[in-house]
């Protein structure tokens, strides 16, 4: 799943991004509202973590431009009063988190927003003997726990979320890796090989030649 962090304090922005990457999210970071709008115009994000008070284009304007679509908005602000929270939600934000905050609460709120996609995603994903708990970052197959690296976990989550549909390599690059990835890389194929090895036999991920991958 892919997240855009919009925060004008570089140290805080980098800390948020690093925390979310540990949770197996693909994360892009910008420090200004105009750059946020540029990224949103070309990339498909599942969640935007949006500081309200950002330069060039205010966070309120960014929120208005995103609200109503598929992307969920978690608004951050130093203003923690009830009136401020109500105003933020009134702009179209899906959730509101005052600063300072605990990173564990931030990631919990991001996971909660992902469960509010259309159609709503269940808190635990299951298919073909696989069980994935994104919030706890746990994976098992037929009751046996499996330890996955971050990108392997994110890749498998995208495949299970597809519910049997074929997922293209381009979609996986967009959702599992950030904007710095080389579009001509073979990283998806290499990561898929490692994932299949860890999932064991019988093989559960099917390659659809020229199209992508799916969970049988």
UniProtKB/TrEMBL annotation:
GO terms for molecular function: phosphorelay response regulator activity; transcription cis-regulatory region binding. The modification 4-aspartylphosphate is found at residue 51. SUPFAM superfamilies: CheY-like. Residues 2-114 form the Response regulatory domain. Residues 122-216 form the OmpR/PhoB-type domain. Keywords: DNA-binding, Phosphoprotein. The keyword Phosphoprotein applies. The keyword NADP does not apply. One of its GO terms (cellular component) is protein-DNA complex. InterPro entries: CheY-like_superfamily, OmpR/PhoB-type_DNA-bd, Sig_transdc_resp-reg_receiver, WalR-like, WH-like_DNA-bd_sf. Residues 122-216 bind DNA. GO terms for biological process: regulation of DNA-templated transcription. This is DNA-binding response regulator, OmpR family, contains REC and winged-helix (WHTH) domain. It comes from Kibdelosporangium aridum.
């Amino acid at each position: 799943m892919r997240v855009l962090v919009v925060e004008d304090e570089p140290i805080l922005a980098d800390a948020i991004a690093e925390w979310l990457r540990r949770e197996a999210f693909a994360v892009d970071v910008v420090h200004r509202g105009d750059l946020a709008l540029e990224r949103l115009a070309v990339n498909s994000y599942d969640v935007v973590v949006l500081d309200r008070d950002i330069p060039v284009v205010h966070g309120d304007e960014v929120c208005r431009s995103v609200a109503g679509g598929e992307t969920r908005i978690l608004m951050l602000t130093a203003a923690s009063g009830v009136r401020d929270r109500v105003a933020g939600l009134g702009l179209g934000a899906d959730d509101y988190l005052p600063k300072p905050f605990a990173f564990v609460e931030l990631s919990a709120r991001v996971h909660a927003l992902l469960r509010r996609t259309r159609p709503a995603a269940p808190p635990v994903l299951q298919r073909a003997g696989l069980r994935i708990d994104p919030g706890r970052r746990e994976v098992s197959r037929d009751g046996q726990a499996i330890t996955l690296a971050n990108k392997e976990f994110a890749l498998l989550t995208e495949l299970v979320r597809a519910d049997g549909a074929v997922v293209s390599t381009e979609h996986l690059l967009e959702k599992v890796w950030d904007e710095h990835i080389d579009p001509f890389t073979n990283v998806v194929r290499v990561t898929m090989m490692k994932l299949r090895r860890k999932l064991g036999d019988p093989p559960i991920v099917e390659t659809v030649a020229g199209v992508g991958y799916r969970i049988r």
